Amino acid sequence: MGSLRGLLEGVVDTALDSLYTATGSLTQSRTNGLSLLGTLLAPTLPLFLTNNSLPDGYPWGELTDEGTNPYTECPRTGVTRHYDFTVSRASIAPDGYLRDVLLVNGAFPGPLVEANWGDTIVVDVHNDITGPEEGTAIHWHGFLQHGTPWEDGVPGITQCPIPPRRSYRYEFVASLYGTSWYHSHYSAQFAGGLFGPIVIHGPTRENYDIDLGPILLTDWYHREYFDIIEEMLAPGGSAKVVSDNNLIDGKMHFDCSTVAPGDNTPCFDNAGVSKFRFQTGKTHRLRLINGGADGVQRFSIDEHTLTVIAEDFVPVKPYNTSVVTLGVGQRADVLVTANVGEPTSAFWMRSNLSSCLPARQPYAVAAVYYDQADTSTTPSSRAWDVLDPGTCTNDDLDITEPLFPIPLPEPTLTHTMDIELFTNASNVTLWKFNGVSMRADYNSPVLLLANDGNFTYPPQWNVVNQHNHTAIRIIVNNRSPSAHPMHLHGHNFYVLHEGPGEWDGTIVRPSNPRRRDVYSVRSKGHLVIQFDGAPGVWPFHCHIAWHVSGGFMATLIVKPDEVERMEIPRDVEKNCRAWAMWSKYNVVDQIDSGT
Ligand SMILES: *[C@@H]1O[C@H](CO)[C@@H](O)[C@H](O)[C@H]1NC(C)=O
Ligand SMILES: *[C@@H]1O[C@H](CO)[C@@H](O)[C@H](O)[C@H]1NC(C)=O
Ligand SMILES: *[C@@H]1O[C@H](CO)[C@@H](O)[C@H](O)[C@H]1NC(C)=O
Ligand SMILES: *[C@@H]1O[C@H](CO)[C@@H](O)[C@H](O)[C@H]1NC(C)=O
Ligand SMILES: *[C@@H]1O[C@H](CO)[C@@H](O)[C@H](O)[C@H]1NC(C)=O
Ligand SMILES: *[C@@H]1O[C@H](CO)[C@@H](O)[C@H](O)[C@H]1NC(C)=O
Ligand SMILES: *[C@@H]1O[C@H](CO)[C@@H](O)[C@H](O)[C@H]1NC(C)=O
Ligand SMILES: [Cu+2]
């Protein structure tokens, strides 16, 4: 990592002394700190770095995406990828409006974690959050963590928060391949900038020439996450939070003339949008990630067809579309061929926040330049004319089929879990999931208690014991007036059905249902999922930052006997002792569910 850090600092520092670059946009260090994403200097993948180079050839051997069950077979490469994360506060202006953020290694979005399928990923996280100090914990979205549930990074569930000025090492196997992200699971810290992309290289049947790397699509807020939640969870507060902007790889313009009168925060017009280079005639792989707090993204590139080849960590039978819809936490890998224009052409890349949510500026754009285009020009391409259904639902279930087929097993256990919005006796608006508004106890992670043989918890932890069942079906009934991207940790679940009202028992393609780790349930609708449970304690929650803060989370204990027998590394307990010590002498302002 040393060499990349040096390269980044070199590039960014040269621009530090002036506010604007030669082409009139804000300098990269002011908008995105030490990140190069969204600039023409961003490297294509894989990155070959001195101590971090991917071995030649295919370390996954004979395993393929269409012939291998990734849940039962995983290559063992023997290679470890080591990363060092320092989490700290900073002030940046991704869209020109200066705000306080939380960053990994001074970069927005955070640095890329890259590995091969079957590698071991080691991340040393140093909590350098000061002024004021705050705990943290990092979740590695979409990884199975089978056999290592304590590495899942959820405070109060799988670990205690990492106290300020302390370090914690995460170590887990890259058990699946494709595109994902990491993000803080401590309160709504990820809405304050604490997230970054993950790319795991694996077998891909489809051919492409250039891997353009991660493209993070994120709604953006001009206020700190803590202030947003404090207001939302105040008596008489509203569960609806309005986003201020929408970013592609952390960049977008903002019209500073729309800043509220009396708001003296520095705001600069023309912050600059992300720029991408296409090689004429070549096929590019784009790794789309909705890493936002709330909004549903509708991604497109003017005049170009997108071929979807993977959704979340699941390779799918390729299909063509002009728009890809992603709820918070969802990913899509798409192939795009640069055969629409001349070598000098430029096009707009767009990501629109779906109209089902309130947004001050929902339209993100980035520029795509073919190889001989002048990168100081502005594209003049025409947008695809596609109607936004305005429902915040995912694209139809029957459109996508996993490349490796798995027929739906018969369930041995079926639950019904309801989603409700309510106000408590203090007139605070909160969420209930399965009858409970969850609140975690940072000092008593469920996993450690279960490992000690204690399966009796306070009701507000919302823990549901699945006992020995492994074919578990959950019918989610959404009684609330908004849509929710539902995320289950540790599994790709089968999506049986999603629709309005009650479920009528229909299952879409039981011979090979769609599988994902996040799927959206519409307002006043239902979502039916099923999963092959692995031993552990697994959060099942809405991925909207504000909703999970308001208590929208349950924790499923699978195979308690095996959880009790797990040998959890001493460092997990050691971190809890450090947190207990820190929280004894410092006030932990747990304003929300904690996760
Ligand atoms: C590579 O790893 C070796 C041994 O761990 C270390 O001494 C060296 O500084 C590293 N080089 C870079 C460029 O990170
Ligand atoms: C609760 O808050 C709402 C605003 O959301 C307000 O209209 C209502 O009067 C409050 N009710 C009480 C009992 O304070
Ligand atoms: C997608 O469209 C391209 C042309 O743009 C075509 O070559 C390809 O066969 C299509 N793929 C599918 C799966 O329909
Ligand atoms: C995105 O919004 C623009 C308006 O800014 C519109 O022209 C375009 O059709 C929208 N695209 C999609 C896919 O909804
Ligand atoms: C209502 O919820 C808020 C936020 O979780 C909490 O601080 C307050 O104590 C609750 N009120 C009651 C009466 O439970
Ligand atoms: C289990 O843990 C909970 C939460 O810490 C505690 O209240 C309860 O007393 C414990 N039960 C036993 C049997 O130790
Ligand atoms: C659950 O399975 C374990 C073996 O993994 C067995 O020892 C235990 O008795 C089972 N528990 C129940 C309640 O069936
Ligand atoms: Cu997650």
UniProtKB/TrEMBL annotation:
<dbReference type="InterPro" id="IPR045087">
    <property type="entry name" value="Cu-oxidase_fam"/>
</dbReference>
<feature type="domain" description="Plastocyanin-like">
    <location>
        <begin position="444"/>
        <end position="561"/>
    </location>
</feature>
<protein>
    <submittedName>
        <fullName>Laccase with copper binding domain</fullName>
    </submittedName>
</protein>
<dbReference type="Pfam" id="PF07731">
    <property type="entry name" value="Cu-oxidase_2"/>
</dbReference>
<dbReference type="InterPro" id="IPR011706">
    <property type="entry name" value="Cu-oxidase_C"/>
</dbReference>
<keyword id="KW-0325">Glycoprotein</keyword>
<comment type="similarity">
    <text>Belongs to the multicopper oxidase family.</text>
</comment>
<feature type="domain" description="Plastocyanin-like">
    <location>
        <begin position="87"/>
        <end position="203"/>
    </location>
</feature>
<dbReference type="Pfam" id="PF07732">
    <property type="entry name" value="Cu-oxidase_3"/>
</dbReference>
<feature type="domain" description="Plastocyanin-like">
    <location>
        <begin position="214"/>
        <end position="371"/>
    </location>
</feature>
<dbReference type="Pfam" id="PF00394">
    <property type="entry name" value="Cu-oxidase"/>
</dbReference>
<keyword id="KW-0677">Repeat</keyword>
<keyword id="KW-0560">Oxidoreductase</keyword>
<keyword id="KW-0186">Copper</keyword>
<dbReference type="InterPro" id="IPR001117">
    <property type="entry name" value="Cu-oxidase_2nd"/>
</dbReference>
<dbReference type="InterPro" id="IPR011707">
    <property type="entry name" value="Cu-oxidase-like_N"/>
</dbReference>
<dbReference type="GO" id="GO:0005507">
    <property type="term" value="F:copper ion binding"/>
</dbReference>
<keyword id="KW-0479">Metal-binding</keyword>
<dbReference type="InterPro" id="IPR008972">
    <property type="entry name" value="Cupredoxin"/>
</dbReference>
<dbReference type="GO" id="GO:0016491">
    <property type="term" value="F:oxidoreductase activity"/>
</dbReference>
